[in-house]
Amino acid sequence: MSFIQNTKKIALVDCNSFYVSCERLFKPSLNKKPVIVLSSNDGCIISRSNEAKLLGIKMGDPYFKAKEIVKKNNVQVFSSNYSLYGDISRRVMRTLKYFGTKIEIYSIDEAFLDLTDLSDNLIELFGKKIRNTILEWTGIPTSIGIASTKTLSKIANHIAKKNKSGVVSLLNAKDIDPVLEKININDVWGVGRQMTKFYIKNNINNAKQLKNVSNTWIKKNSNVLSSRTAMELKGISCIDIEVSQSKRKSCCVSRSFGRKVDSIQELKESITTHCLNAAEKIRSESLFAKSITISVRTSPFQKTERYYSNSKTLDFPIATNNSIEIVKTALAGLEIIFIKGYKYQKSGIVLSGLTSSENNQNLFFTDKDNKMKNLMKSIDSTNYKYGRSTLSLADAGIKKKWNLRKEHSSKIDTADFYCLPTIKAS
DNA sequence: TCTGGGGTCCTAGGACCC
DNA sequence: TCTGGGGTCCTAGGACCC
Which domains does chain A have, with CATH numbers? Predict the structure, then answer.
């Protein structure tokens, strides 16, 4: 008896420097120039063009640390513009779906494709076809890695990023060890900071060494996730492609402040704003929250100030997506954890235990409940038409002095009529 | 002066029950 | 007053991802 092992063929399509590429779409003069995109509040560097990478600008570094390099090399800087990136992402994914394979949208700029049914000799060609089509239809450059497991396709993608063709398959590699040997342990998907420390201590420094470690050792010394990663490196697929978009289980909104905040009034304003955004989001997905967690903290980086961080989780009597009830509960939670005298840097809320409306037992709907439902509906549709926060609650504050910094916005929003680029006739 | 935000999953430990 | 053992469920915190 023999087993026919049906080797999977998995492609990972990943957009190159995605946020930078989005900004370049509307400003082609940025091509070949160093460009970076900052996180919200202009805090950290979260996307870099190749030219910026070559200048030594590090991913995740705080912006102020790189300012000198930026100035010296005339690096173009953008505040992040998520509605633009979201819109471009949808275009890329739509293009991918056109090819008709099983697809898992993994993140804003990545998708796994199941190419198992394709014959080996067509795979790379198919990859190139996909890559060219995305570039042609959306203007976004991608890299594609193909292998027998998700973890290996990540590695193939890693190599493809540095490869001119942009498509790399490890399916036919006779001996994969020399390839894996060049991949640092911390570049393996699923190996983070903590595990990297642990592995290096045990003299496992690259992907090849992790692949060849015994399964008993890894199970004894670590957890199921690590052993799964090691199996995947061996070419045994343990992580399936998830085609259906499962409903989210939590929804969180949090922000750093543009400047430090010490009054409870301003914290209330920010928490209220977060609640309104989160409530709108879960209503748009017909979800209800069972509980809410409210959190505040001071800056963990400020060595001269005392650090304070706290959170409080409160349950709703019945799962809800009603803004007013969510805000009321959140503010009660805030009162519990607020301590006067600290300079707060960030606040946030998490709605959790999300359930869909079908599971929610609305057996006791009163007149009042129905009125509330209608009110929420009209708030949502008004805000959809006229922009967020057209209708809000007084608690959310008007001035919002604590609001974000955003000094480098490209002001392009392909999903907002009022942000259409204008052309001046001369 | 200035250090992001939004998710998922796993695990250890406590509460509770019989 | 002495005080077992096994099971489940829940939660907070940690690790990871992009």
Answer: 10-168 (3.30.70.270), 174-233 (1.10.150), 251-396 (3.30.1490.100)
